[in-house]
Amino acid sequence: MPKGSPELTAARREEIITACETLYQTMSFKDITIKEIGAVTSFTRTSIYNYFQTKEEIFLALMQREYDQWAQEVSALTQTHETMTAEAFADALARSLETHQQLLKLLAMNHYDMEEHSRPERLTEFKVAYGASLDAVRGCLERFFPETDVQRFLFVFFPFLFGVYPYAVATDKQLEAMREAGMDFRMHSIYELIYACVMQLLEGGTS
Known about the structure:
Layout: H1 6-24, H2 34-39, H3 45-48, H4 55-80, H5 86-98, H6 101-109, H7 111-116, H8 120-144, H9 150-161, H10 164-168, H11 172-180, H12 190-203
């Protein structure tokens, strides 16, 4: 790690992560390189290696940031509501994830590669953020739905998130292929998928 204030180190890490995020909006994971990321930061490509050893570590940090932000949003529900109906909670959870489409995209498409090609300490930092999101949802369930089987909800809901993005977002090529295959389909939004899942789990998830 380079010498400098913790504030400078944090600011440079954030700049690298944000540069990666910007590129990911128009480029595929495989096409993004550290050279590409360096081209849109204020310092040299070689300086990036002082903070991240691989592009996968940068993407993992991006997903960590997404989990941190989402966990804060979910945790806030227990601070701003005394009670919530199943419909209100499903709506809040669905809307929160709707604004984190990037998290769902990373989960669906590149999660394994990011974890496989990151150093153990970076992976541990990420798992802390992931754990915080589990705790945030668990806290809401224990507060608002004490009769719900919390472990069952978490066991189903979090793996379910890995499949949301492909069912909500399709390329023109994928849509054309489904039409050519004669598939009877309708794309559903992230909100619709999350809301339906949460409602099913709450309605059928009492212990």
